[in-house]
Amino acid sequence: MKKSKIISRQAMIAAIYAVLSLALSFISFGTVQVRVSEALTLLPIFAFSNVWGVTIGCFITNLVGFFTGANILGAFDILFGTLATFTAAILSYALRNIRFKKLPILSAIPPILVNAIVIGAELCILINNGKFNMAIFGVQALSVGLGQLLSCGVIGMVMVKAIEKNNKLKEYLS
Known about the structure:
By secondary structure, this protein is an all-alpha fold.
């Protein structure tokens, strides 16, 4: 695929991620969150280059969220939240060929676990005045993990299945 097509595909993925997150900002940020756009962290299943679109979309979301006041985690989330999505997308790519009933179910696990840990820690420190507390972390990690389970484990798998049934869309994302 030509570089210009790859770049435009990544721009489209980034835009979709950011629009979904910001349009649903009331559930995309906060101590209880379901960032629906995180389902897109499964797009690297189709091509490694999709990691960049998802990562840039997350960065834009966290940056705009910070400046609009929606992102309560502030500047830390711009860095660490984006790195969490980047790491999860790479790991999703790495697990893409391990399939159960033709679905890359293991690819949904990294975005769930990585975000539960990273965002859970960010929320714990925010809630506990800059200090880490294992009990608060456990509650926040569980809360974020459940939101990610819905986004990646349910919505993301439905998305992957739909893409894999549509040859033109699958080809475009590959």
